[in-house]
Amino acid sequence: MRLSNNLRLEKNTIAYNGSSYGLDAYWQSVELPTVNFKTDDLMIGYRSSFIFKRNDFTRFTGSIARGYKSGGFNQHPYLNEEAVPRGQGPFDGIRNWDETSNSKGPVQILQFSLV
């Protein structure tokens, strides 16, 4: 049996300042409200897995992982403080869990993945 563990720790800071123009109901150019915010994210990701080799033809594996994508915001011009629902945001990073297990032999009989 083989066990494997990985850990990733990262601090990510994003300062976003955006301005843009749009069109009003009369097709006149208008300046849209600016978007200005800063995010500080502490990202923790890991993966833990095992491989059990039953014989030369069959092995069992399993893993669990957590990933992270910093930012998590869309750069649409309407993402200013007035457009964000009260009590939310501005915008958080995106977190992802992944659990996988399978069995391999001469014929693969089982595979399971949950994301």
Count the E strands: 7
Separation of the first and last Cα atoms = 25 Å
The main β sheet shows up as:
5 strands, antiparallel
Following the backbone from N to C, one meets helices and strands in this order, namely: EEEEEEE
Q: Strand order across the biggest sheet?
A: 1-4-5-6-7
Shape: elongated
Percent of residues in beta strands? over 45%
Number of domains: 1
Q: Indicate the percent of residues in helices.
A: under 10%
Radius of gyration: 23 Å
Mean pLDDT: 72
Helix vs. strand class? mainly beta
Count of alpha and pi helical runs: 0
Low-confidence stretches are none
How would you characterize the overall build of this protein?
Helix content is 0%, strand content 60%. The protein has one domain. The strands form two sheets. It has a five-stranded antiparallel sheet with strand order 1-4-5-6-7, with no helix packed on it. A two-stranded antiparallel sheet has the order 2-3. The chain is elongated. With 115 residues, it is an all-beta fold.
Question: Which key features would you list for this structure?
Answer:
0% helix, elongated, 115 residues, 60% strand, two-stranded antiparallel ribbon, mainly beta, five-stranded antiparallel beta sheet
